[in-house]
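Weekly sync, protein design subgroup
Attendees: M.S., D.O., the rotation student, P.L. (late)

Item 1: inverse folding check
M.S. brought a backbone from last month's batch and wanted to see whether the design step gives back something sensible before we order anything. D.O. pointed out we never logged the input encoding, so this time it goes straight into the notes. Structure tokens as presented (672 positions):
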């Protein structure tokens, strides 16, 4: 089968959230791009927010090892890695429980997500994803707590319908030099006129990560994981569709590399990290204006984290376990009030139950000493909210308005401090307007408030977290953000770009304040709502079609963060960073060369300087060149990636492990 170049290039550019490069009018081209992370399907050019969209073809083309590595070149997003099994996304300077992750319209964040970098995104297999969207500077009205600077929304694959019975089978093998990866993935999809089934699974083994400049393996950093997913989708009638899904990921023996190397641990690992979920979603369409479409979702999610730690020369093994069970229900109602006015409104309820335990095991006598867990055992965290988003379309303008009221109740039965009940409420808004300039450009202005209710990690954590020892703090109140943003978008059949500048004010921030006390060799920190800060910066992304066979694209992001209370830089703020890619298609070959870079970061807070993962003088700038090529036939494809051609030894700012050195990564796919 002959592959048409224009089709391949078009699919690739669409996958980058960029317009198909073909001889069409701007209005035709724009119909190919929608943004649903704002809780409604919209033309990206007309959305008054900075947005990015990556579809299935980009996800396949990037061939990323993990979900965090998949997202690292999105504008406004920076990747930090504490270890090879980690990967925390910084969204305009914030990370951890101050940014919101969504999975298929369901909150992925739970009530134990930590402040600062965490590893939870790595428990979503990129092999199961078909789409990723980001919305910068907004998201609290759309999805609730934690979206202080934006939302990353992941969409997993769904079975499709077909006019005739259709069976598809896909197999994939991935490998890397120096045994850094050896993995297998498989997928089966069966579809008919009104129903479809999808089942997929993977098993992966990652070896120790080899750093650049011939400095060898970073050991121990390797681990193993496996994942599976099953979905059934049914079109019961013209007006009713439903689906049910199950998904899980299990990681075993994931070392926390920097603690073993820098903190005298013989063992420090995630013995078992497991994420599991099951959900049901139903959609009804009606002819009524106030309820064009009603969507209901029921979900159960479970997160298990087992940790083991033992110091060198010690006979005591510390074993910890945290289990979070989350149940949720949501109802969305889409309304079309007039030709130019539509809305999306709904209610959401989330309920977390947390089981937490800790014990010390004497390796000599086998005596087990039970201790209080990281969180109060049997804690509960309840969230309920109501929201309404309105979309107004008038000639040359698009207006977005919305409100959300959110309530939280945390119940912490602490064995030492007794029963504590903490309740908080928040009301947030979003408002944006786009002004269309001709048919292929727009300028927008938006203002959005956000909030983050203190979760169980803020309120009840007791013990060693990263490089500090934390105590419970039941007096905490919500954090707030206020984002002001100005942006410009342009696109036609040959060129596309998006540029935005923003300022985000942060108030009532929950801060870890160092005390004079020391426990188990770690300084004790108390949590307080005492700081005000701001983030300011901008992002640019663009694409230029050189000719029918090649294209050039790039992105650049910068943010500065200042702690006004302490008169110092905010913690872990990423440096100026970006990437540039050149794509060329010749026959059955598709090739890409990219340069990914970050400038140095010398604006460090006192907390940065005391973090043993960072150089107190700052993080050096770096740049790496990667080359990728693939050869495709009708039923198979071979891809090769040459990473870090210059064998540069580098570290992403704030990370606890260095990036991969010069290496070869391969992937072979068969479809039937």
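Designed sequence read out in the meeting:
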């Amino acid at each position: 089968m002959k592959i048409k170049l224009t089709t391949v290039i078009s699919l690739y550019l669409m996958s980058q959230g960029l317009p198909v490069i073909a001889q069409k009018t701007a209005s035709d081209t724009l119909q190919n791009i929608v943004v649903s992370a704002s809780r409604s399907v919209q033309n990206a050019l007309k959305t008054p927010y900075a947005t990015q969209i990556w579809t299935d073809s980009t996800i396949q083309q990037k061939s990323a090892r993990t979900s965090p590595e998949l997202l690292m070149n999105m504008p406004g997003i920076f990747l930090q890695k504490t270890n090879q099994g980690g990967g925390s996304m910084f969204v305009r300077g914030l990370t951890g429980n101050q940014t919101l992750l969504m999975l298929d319209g369901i909150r992925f964040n739970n009530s134990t997500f930590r402040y600062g970098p965490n590893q939870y995104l790595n428990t979503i297999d990129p092999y199961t994803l078909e789409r990723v969207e980001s919305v910068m500077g907004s998201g609290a009205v759309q999805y609730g707590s934690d979206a202080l600077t934006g939302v990353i929304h992941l969409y997993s694959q769904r079975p499709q319908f077909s006019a005739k019975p259709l069976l598809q089978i896909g197999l994939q093998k991935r490998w890397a030099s120096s045994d850094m990866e050896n993995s297998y993935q498989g997928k089966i999809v069966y579809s008919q006129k009104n129903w479809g089934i999808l089942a997929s699974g993977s098993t992966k083994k990652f070896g120790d990560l080899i750093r650049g400049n011939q400095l060898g393996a970073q050991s121990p950093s390797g681990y193993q994981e496996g994942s599976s997913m099953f979905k059934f989708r049914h079109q019961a009638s013209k007006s009713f569709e439903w689906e049910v899904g199950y998904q899980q990921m299990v990681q075993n023996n994931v070392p926390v590399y920097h603690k073993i190397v820098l903190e005298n641990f013989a063992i420090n690992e995630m013995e078992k990290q497991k994420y599991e979920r099951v959900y049901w979603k139903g959609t009804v369409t009606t002819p009524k204006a106030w309820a064009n479409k009603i969507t209901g979702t029921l979900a159960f999610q479970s997160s298990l984290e087992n940790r083991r730690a033992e110091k060198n020369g010690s006979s005591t093994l510390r074993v910890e376990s945290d289990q979070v069970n989350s149940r949720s229900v949501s109802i969305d109602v889409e309304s079309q009030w007039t030709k130019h006015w539509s809305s999306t409104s709904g209610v959401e309820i989330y309920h977390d139950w947390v089981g937490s335990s800790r014990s010390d095991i004497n390796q000599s006598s086998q005596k087990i000493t039970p201790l209080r867990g990281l969180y109060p055992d049997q804690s509960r965290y309840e969230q309920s909210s109501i929201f309404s988003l309105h979309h107004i379309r008038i000639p040359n303008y698009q207006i977005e308005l919305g409100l959300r009221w959110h309530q939280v109740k945390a119940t912490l039965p602490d064995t030492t401090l007794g029963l504590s009940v903490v309740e908080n409420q928040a009301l947030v808004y979003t408002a944006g307007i786009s002004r269309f300039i001709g048919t292929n450009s727009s300028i927008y202005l938006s203002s959005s408030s956000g909030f983050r209710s203190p979760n169980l990690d803020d309120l009840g954590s007791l013990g060693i977290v990263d490089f500090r020892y934390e105590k419970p703090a039941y007096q905490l109140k919500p954090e707030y953000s206020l984002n002001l943003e100005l942006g410009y978008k342009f696109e036609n059949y040959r060129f596309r770009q998006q540029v935005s500048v923003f300022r985000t004010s942060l108030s009532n921030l929950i801060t870890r304040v160092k005390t004079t006390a020391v426990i188990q060799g770690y300084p004790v920190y108390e949590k307080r709502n005492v700081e005000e800060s701001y983030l300011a910066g901008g992002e640019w992304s663009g694409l230029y079609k050189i000719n029918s066979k090649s294209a050039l694209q790039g992105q650049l992001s910068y943010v500065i963060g200042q702690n006004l209370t302490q008169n110092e830089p905010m913690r872990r703020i990423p440096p100026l960073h970006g990437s540039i890619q050149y794509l060329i298609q010749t026959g059955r070959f598709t090739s890409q060369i990219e340069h990914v870079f970050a400038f140095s970061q010398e604006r460090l807070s006192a907390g940065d300087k005391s973090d043993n993962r960072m150089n107190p003088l700052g993080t050096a700038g770096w740049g790496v060149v990667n080359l990728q090529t693939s050869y495709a036939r009708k039923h198979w494809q071979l891809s090769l990636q040459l990473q870090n051609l210059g064998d540069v030894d580098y570290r992403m700012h704030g990370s606890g492990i260095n990036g991969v050195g010069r290496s070869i990564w391969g992937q072979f796919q068969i479809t039937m």
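Discussion: The helical segments are 5-15, 26-30, 56-62, 67-71, 140-143, 257-262, 456-460, 606-610. The longest helix spans residues 5-15.
Action: P.L. to compare against the previous round before Friday.
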